[in-house]
Every structure is written in structure tokens, then in C-alpha cells.
Amino acid sequence: MTQQYSALCKGCWQQMHVPIPLRGGFSLPFRAFGIRPSNMNPNICTICEMMFARMMKARTVTIDATILFADLRGYTKLSQSMPAADVAGLLDDFYDRCAAAIWEHDGLLNKTIGDAVMAIFNFPIKRSDHSRQAVLAARQMQKNIADQRARFGDTPDAAGDELGIGIGIHTGEVSFGEFGHSHRDLTAIGTVVNMAARAQSAARPGEILVTQEVHDRAQAELQGSTATDYTLKGFDQPVALYAA
Amino acid sequence: MTQQYSALCKGCWQQMHVPIPLRGGFSLPFRAFGIRPSNMNPNICTICEMMFARMMKARTVTIDATILFADLRGYTKLSQSMPAADVAGLLDDFYDRCAAAIWEHDGLLNKTIGDAVMAIFNFPIKRSDHSRQAVLAARQMQKNIADQRARFGDTPDAAGDELGIGIGIHTGEVSFGEFGHSHRDLTAIGTVVNMAARAQSAARPGEILVTQEVHDRAQAELQGSTATDYTLKGFDQPVALYAA
Lengths: 244, 244
Description:
The structure is a homodimer. By secondary structure, chain A is of the alpha+beta class. Chain A has 9 helices and 8 strands. In chain A, β2 and β3 (about 115-120) form a beta hairpin. The model of chain A is unreliable at about 155-160 (pLDDT under 50).
């Protein structure tokens, strides 16, 4: 990753106009209080992440955001035939490559779960073109993962050609905030999130599937892409998805 | 939850024989350094969670553990017809009820992702009967969720009878530790984790499916349960699962 990290927390600045130093000498007293770059994005701080409810004066807020899910296809199968250390290396690489692509486009790497990642665009770092940023991040992830595939394809006992990621993207209103009281979890929920996850399930390895709403907001990036109807689990009506 | 929380971190004590106060006056200086009860289990501390690699002198360790996945069936469908605040309340409740059951049996609520949770038993809090503890936690979750279903079934516009959780459990060696370098994530990976997730997918609402290995280790709890063969995604051979 060649991108320079921000000296101030972009989240606190954009959401509250409060300058929180993330790096350099000014950040030291903050670090003593546990305020440091977030694990979800190095350009926001742990206040954005952990003290969300106190700062926003609400447990959840409704925001306009773009949600991206990516899943490493072939992982379950591959991990049965690989030594544990190689599987760990594969996931390290996958998470790192996904993180780099998401952060380059100001997204929040909200979750990793086994072979999947979930990213949120437009909060806490605002981008008016967040759907386009998500599409660009998805393409960067596919490119980054092609490099990883090439690397694993080099080893004789790894089925390198089975590796590939499927990505799904949807955009609209989500509930963002803390869920659960005893185990607090900062995430986004709602139909938009569910739809993004389902679009990801429908994507073939190497494919990016986006909804009509993402297509409309990121048209310049999606010239010539035509819609195909998909039947998605949990949704009664067929859903039109575009390959991006 | 009626259970009393521990005054000392059970993880630090069991893994390193170091007493870390979690509650009461002795915990105050520790809290100033960000050492407090973990979000994953109130009886372990953030050292167990965040400083894993430094304490264990390795990024990952191979451990014997039991993995439990639970998924709230009908959530995607239900969340389309419910107001956002109700969906948030539903998830708050689901996470809280899962957390209570997992913690009562010394498990780690490692992940929540949308309508699913992942729990790890036997680390950092050791239990020689961790498979049995996982089965008991799963039953407690089903009971807790039946109460929740009753509550949501009371509202006329919620399809209360569609709610129910599917649970899958597997046990064996997993790689536990930090994955990813730029976005660090503390979790367990390996075939055992994948199998538990697949068993969960096969479970019907209200059902708990466990593998042969869990059955063998928790026999006293599973008298009279017979195996059924399931075809699970990513596994070439049919897998025998027992209803618990």
C-alpha cells in the first residue's frame, strides 16, 4: 500500500469537526487514553469505533451507505488439503489485500469472518460518490487477489486455480451503530446489508455483482453492463444484478 | 443473566497464572491502561483479546476447541417487513441471548455477523468437557430464543413463527490467533471451523446439529440421538450429523 495515512482522524473531523491526532507527537497523550488508529480503518480513531453511542447521542443512526461483501471461493475445500500454517498465510494475505483496497477508497473494514469480509462506505468518512468508491475498491480487491492466486498457484499442492473472490455490493439506507447490550458490536444492519450479502453469494469467482441502485449511482464506471435477474434467498422477487 | 462475573481474568490466570483484576478497586489502575473485561467474554480481559500475540509469543497456536455457529432463520425475510428500530431490537435481543448462553458455559462470543454468531469453547478459559459445554450452551440458546420468538409473535405484523435458530457444532484442532497484519482479527480458523459453519447451514430452525466428534465427547448429553448423512458444501464426502 503506497497510500499515506492521515495525521488527524477523518471520522471525528467529518462527523464532529473535532481534530484528533492519530500520528506524530500530538497523538501520544491520546494514545495513553487508548485513542489510536482504528483496526477498521487507519484514518479513523477508536473514538469513532468504540465510543460511537456517546458521540452520536444515539445507539444507532440511519445513514446512506454502500455495503460490500467479498468471499474467498474455494477456501473451505482448499483448507482441507493445506497445512494449517499455509491456511493462516492465505487468510492473512486475503485480509491484507482486502483491507488495502477498502481503505484506499475510504471504506470501513467492518468484519472479517473466515473467508469473507464486509465493508461499509460513507461512514464515518463521508464520500458523496461512495457507491463508485465501493465499485473501485471491489475491482482493486479482484486485482489484488489475482496476484495472490498467482502466488498460491505456484505451489504444486495448492489448487491455485480454484481461488477467486465473489463480491456483492448494494447501497441505500442502513442502521449503523451498536447492537447487543452485553456483547456490543459496531456494524450496519438492514435490508441493504442483507441484499449485498445475497448478491455476493450469487457472484462467481472473480465476479462483482451490483444492484440497480449501485448501477445508477456509479453509472460512469458501469457503461455497457446489462442486468441479469437472480433469485436470492430470503427475497420473494427476482433481483436484477449488474456485473461490474 | 443471574451468573456472577469473575473478579480476576480467568484467561490470564489459566493461560499464564497471572492475576489480572477485572472488577473492584484493584481493577482501577488496570483500567487506566485499557485493561478491562473483554467484549467477547466478561470473565476474560482485553489482554487475552488484544495482546494475544505478545503474550503467547506466537501469532497463532493450535488448540483443541469446540466451535459453535448459530444463525437466526427468517431474519432476512422478517427484516424486510419490520421497521428498522424493531430489526435493531430483534438483533440486540438475539445477541444478548446468545451471549448469555455462551458465557454461562465459559465460551468466547468471537463474532457476530448480521443474523449469525460464532463461539469458541476451551480458549482462553479451559474446560475439559468443552464439547459438552457447547451442547449445553446451544440448548440454552434455543430456549432463550424461544422466549424471544414468543415476544415477537405477540406483535401482529411480525411473522413470529418464522423465527428460530439453526445451530451447528464441531470439535477438534483449530488455529487460534491473529489473522491479517493491517486489519488484525482474533479468531479461530481451520477445517473444524468450516465444518461447524456448514453443519449450522444444514440445521433447521430450532435444530442443533453436531458432528460425530462432538457426539463422542458429549455422549451423556446425546443418548438416543442417531446420525443422518448430510451433503455439505465444500466437503466431498457426506457428513454424519446428530441432532442434539
